[in-house]
Design brief:
The protein has 14 helices and 7 strands. The protein has helices at residues 10-33, 43-48, 69-77, 121-130, 147-160, 165-178, 182-191, 195-203, 218-225, 229-239, 245-253, 257-260, 272-288, 290-305; strands at residues 39-41, 59-63, 82-83, 96-100, 107-111, 133-137, 140-144. It has a 5-stranded mixed beta sheet, with helices on both faces. A two-stranded antiparallel ribbon has the order 6-7. The two termini are 30 Å apart.
Amino acid sequence: MRPSAPAIPPGEVLRINESIVLSAALISHVAADCNIRVLLIKGPAATLVGARPVRPSLDIDVLLQRSDLKALLAALEQRGWAARIPEVSEAFPEHSTTLINPGWPSDIDVHWRFPGFYEKESVVFERLWTARESVELGGRPVWTLSHNDALLVTLLHALRSPAKGVLHDDVTFCLNKIRSSPQVHYDRALELGAIGPLGPFFASLPETRAFDLGEPPFDWVLRTTAQRSATLRLFHLMEIPWSRKPAALWQALVPSRESISWHDLELRDMKRWRQTSFRFRRLWRSLTEGVQTVKEVREIRARLQK
């Protein structure tokens, strides 16, 4: 049985969708004012170019160059937006930052890298930007991915979370679109460094199954196999240089106030003694799940060795 998402009242869905459309227009306007190139990915923009089934979205996702991240965040901060976690932990490196605004019911996810595209970040962005399309959201033209590029993003996002039912439907949707010209999509995936992650998908198509499908990168295997954040942290801790391990380990064991409030923003304003209680419970949970975490690590290592 596929897991289902929590039910959202129809009125709230409508309010969130309206805010998403307005968020898309806002971030496009702010980026243009700052002379920053931004691409809308996933969500309503992908639906408009025919690369995702029609359904409500809960947030807006954009992609930019890492060098433009600070400037865009500063511009949005002036308009009331703030990052959930101001800085990315070395113990758990990420590919995006989530912005929230008390006056808006939806978030903005700002990506500087999209997991699944493993060509150099700047190269990926330039190739996506060159092929971009314009759509209208919130009464304003905004830049988004081309139909073919948006299909790859939809597919990669779905394959990263295979347990989610709605994303399983996205794989079927993409298959029906891609099977009409599989080599075109294979060639594009090759240009963006996505052949490893999409190898099993192209292996299922008669036209591309004999092509070089490569091997999925370590990062992709980790993201699609690990079920616990502790497993991800442990692997990243093992990978970074020894000189950075002490600081990363401290960040993992004693996370910042912003870090522990990632899922519950009320923790950010809690008194210190209540935060300490939460930290001890978090640490105890990590210790009790240690056996399962080590088991996951072994399973991932075995998959990598194959």
